[in-house]
C-alpha cells in the first residue's frame, strides 16, 4: 500500500538502548514497514537466510536477532553459564573491566559485507556474522541489534515476538510492521512457554521454609502467609 509521511520511531525517540547508537538524521521520512520473520528455532533461521541468498531479494538490508548463546564471542563470557548477567556486568564496568568487543560494534555493523551497497550486500546467517565479528574483534550480538534500525527484514525466534519482556529488551516495536510466523502451528506451545515457569519440589520446600521463617518472625505476615499457603498447596 502507499506509504505515508511520518516521524519514524528510530529518529524521534531518546536513545534508551546503548545498542541503538546509529540514528536517522532526517526526522521525517517515508516509513516502510519492516518484515519480522519469526521461526521456531535458530537452525531454521539459517535455512531461511540461505534461501533468501538464492533469491533476487538477497540484497535487502536484514538482520538476525538471537541470544548471546549464539553470538557472544568474549572468551570468558561466552563460556559462562550466565552469559547475560556477565555481559551486563562488563558493560556497566562494575569491576573496572569492560568489553572491548562491545566497543568495536560499529566496525561490524558498518562493515561493507553487511551494508546494502549495490553489488556488495547479500543475505547472511548467524555463522557469517559471528566469523566476521571474530575477525574484526567486534560484538555480533549488539551489531545485529544495531542493524535492526535500518533492516527491512528481521529474522528471529518466535519468542522474541511473542514475549513482551523480550520485545521490550530487544527494542522490537511491532506496530504497523509486517509479522510472518513460520510453522505457525507451534505458536500455542511457544506462547504457553513464554508465560510459564518451572520449579522443582526442592525449590518449593526451600521457599516454604523461608516463608515459615518470615511468618513466625512477624515479618510482613499478611503478605507472606498467602504465599506460604500457595507453596504448601503445590507441595
TrEMBL record:
Protein's GO biological process: double-strand break repair involved in meiotic recombination; nucleotide-excision repair
Sequence intervals crossing the membrane: none
Superkingdom, natural source: Eukaryota
Pfam families: DEAD_2
Ranges of biased composition (kind: Basic and acidic residues): 12-26
Family matches, as Gene3D superfamilies: P-loop containing nucleotide triphosphate hydrolases (3.40.50.300)
Annotated region (Disordered), positions in chain: 1-26
GO MF annotation list: ATP binding; DNA binding; DNA helicase activity; hydrolase activity, acting on acid anhydrides, in phosphorus-containing anhydrides
Domain annotation Helicase ATP-binding: ranges: 1-231
Entry annotated with the keyword Cytoplasm: no
InterPro entries, per the entry: DinG/Rad3-like, Helic_SF1/SF2_ATP-bd_DinG/Rad3, Helicase-like_DEXD_c2, P-loop_NTPase, RAD3-like_helicase_DEAD
Keywords from the UniProt entry: ATP-binding, Hydrolase, Nucleotide-binding
Gene Ontology cellular component list: nucleus
UniProt-recorded name of the protein: FANCJ protein
Organism in which the protein naturally occurs: Chaetorhynchus papuensis
Gene: Brip1
Amino acid at each position: 500500500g502507499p506509504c505515508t509521511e511520518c516521524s519514524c520511531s528510530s529518529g524521534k525517540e531518546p536513545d534508551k538502548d546503548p545498542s541503538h547508537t546509529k540514528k536517522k538524521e532526517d526526522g521525517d521520512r517515508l516509513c516502510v514497514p519492516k518484515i519480522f520473520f519469526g521461526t521456531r528455532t535458530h537452525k531454521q533461521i539459517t535455512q531461511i537466510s540461505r534461501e533468501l541468498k538464492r533469491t533476487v531479494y538477497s540484497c535487502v538490508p536484514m538482520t538476525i536477532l538471537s541470544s548471546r548463546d549464539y553470538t557472544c564471542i568474549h572468551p570468558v563470557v561466552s563460556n559462562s553459564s550466565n552469559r547475560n548477567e556477565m555481559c551486563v556486568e562488563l558493560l556497566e564496568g562494575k569491576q573496572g573491566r569492560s568489553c572491548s568487543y562491545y566497543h568495536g560494534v560499529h566496525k561490524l555493523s558498518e562493515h561493507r559485507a553487511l551494508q546494502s551497497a549495490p553489488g556488495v550486500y547479500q543475505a547472511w546467517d548467524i555463522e557469517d556474522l559471528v566469523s566476521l565479528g571474530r575477525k574484526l574483534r567486534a560484538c555480533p550480538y549488539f551489531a545485529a541489534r544495531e542493524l535492526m534500525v535500518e533492516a527491512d527484514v528481521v529474522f528471529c525466534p518466535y519468542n522474541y515476538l511473542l514475549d513482551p519482556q523480550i520485545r521490550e529488551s530487544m527494542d522490537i516495536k511491532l506496530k504497523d510492521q509486517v509479522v510472518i510466523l513460520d510453522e505457525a502451528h507451534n505458536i500455542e506451545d511457544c506462547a504457553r512457554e513464554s508465560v510459564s515457569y518451572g520449579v522443582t519440589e526442592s525449590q518449593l520446600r526451600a521457599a516454604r521454609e523461608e516463608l515459615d521463617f518470615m511468618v513466625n518472625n512477624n515479618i510482613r505476615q499478611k503478605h507472606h502467609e498467602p504465599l506460604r499457603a500457595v507453596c504448601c498447596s503445590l507441595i
